[in-house]
Design the sequence.
């Protein structure tokens, strides 16, 4: 049996909520599965989501270039203590669960700012191998780790489907799942989406909790989303998908390899 | 000549930046065009991006349901003063410019939290007409207003193109342009994207500034993105696109009406 270290990132303002109940259920399941879990409950931590000069020990009188200042502070071990604590949790973790309610079709600001502040240059981007090759989209700091989004949404399921007015949910999640987690090297499992989340009956809750338990049971083994690797030969030197792949097609879906 | 009130929302931590220079250029252009401008410089305002019970005068001992609490506070005129000030600027404005650097393929947290906190229920969602019909996606509080994204991105242009590894930029912006601005009723103009933003030469800056001036000159008249209206007959009762429209296709692109 595979034992994993799991970092559960929780970004809901109210623990006495469907989201809180799902988190508690998930943590019980992880414990029963023999995994270790740590929780970053961003509201409870009063997490500061705003990138600022102070994160980097940067003199505010000097012009701030976020990428350069963050890379310098990261290399020097001078990032804010709250950022370093989250980076240490990520280093410890074999898997990340990213749980949030869908607000305006994206993450709550407190969670977006967890990525903005923790995923600094040198840690999650601007990472190279000894030959100078850029490590991203399938390679990088999070390589070998797994990640899964647990999403609650007020919208009903059809409206988040492939032709639903709110947008196909995996494409709404592309900036997070592909542009952040996969960018940093993590294998991203299919998201667990709980639609109609503001009107879940007790019976529906049991069904959602059961699906969550199943997804956590398969956390070590489930097949990740088949995002294409930057260094796998599918992209040209301008990082454009080569013409023989998904020929004639455009948009976010072309970055999924078919038939896997 | 059409004179407009323009709200310029600026979400960069450093005014002494390409972003700051573009903002200043844009504000000069608006003034020369005879428009009135107000600026919400979120970093300078030290904007708080985190939705919390205190926004709504909500008793923290009681369970918080954000949608209900925000709607109650909005109706009662009891939202936090900082939120009401932004709502008043929006009410004043004929057009919104939303300017930000692309961080992890989305908005900086401080800007996401501007939408999270200001676009409360009753103001930007959960709005109905007297017959009880939901007003969103082309109807709503922002109907009659125009909005345009001004985006700077470190990535180079091909990588943000239709087959670029970072994702087609208008689809990365879908949660904001379609899911937030169009949802609330605004007509969304094509975004102005400045790629390669961390290495812009003086000559390139002049070209970008010129494009910005052109876009601001056509702010009252430019053709908006052809997003489909919720109440225009294109969607069925489950809010799924009817099968004869974009037949057989899926994903975010189906929500643009062709040939317009």
Sequence:
């Amino acid at each position: 049996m595979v034992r994993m270290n799991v970092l559960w990132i929780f970004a809901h303002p109210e623990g006495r909520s469907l989201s809180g109940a799902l988190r508690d259920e998930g943590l019980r399941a992880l414990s029963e599965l023999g995994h270790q879990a740590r929780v970053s409950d961003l509201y409870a931590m009063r997490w500061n989501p705003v990138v600022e000069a102070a994160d980097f020990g940067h003199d505010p009188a000097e012009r701030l270039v976020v990428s350069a200042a963050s890379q310098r502070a990261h290399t020097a071990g001078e990032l804010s203590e709250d950022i370093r604590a989250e980076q240490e949790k990520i280093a410890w973790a074999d898997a990340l669960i990213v749980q949030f309610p869908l607000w305006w079709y994206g993450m709550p600001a407190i969670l977006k700012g967890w990525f903005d502040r923790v995923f600094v240059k040198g840690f999650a981007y601007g990472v190279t191998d000894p030959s100078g090759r850029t490590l991203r989209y399938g390679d990088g700091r999070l390589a070998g780790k797994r990640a899964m989004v647990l999403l609650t949404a007020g919208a009903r399921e059809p409206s988040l489907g492939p032709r639903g007015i709110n947008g196909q949910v995996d494409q709404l999640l592309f900036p997070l799942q592909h542009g952040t987690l996969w960018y940093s090297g993590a294998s991203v499992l299919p998201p667990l989406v709980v639609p109609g989340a503001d009107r879940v009956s007790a019976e529906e809750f049991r069904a959602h909790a059961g699906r969550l338990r199943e997804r956590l049971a398969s956390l070590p083994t489930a097949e990740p989303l088949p995002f294409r690797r930057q260094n796998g030969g599918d992209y040209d030197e301008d990082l454009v998908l080569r013409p023989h792949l998904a020929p004639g097609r455009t948009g976010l879906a072309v970055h999924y390899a078919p038939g896997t």
User: Anything to note?
Assistant: Chain B touches chain A through 66 residues (CB under 8 Å). Chain B is about 30% helix and 10% strand.
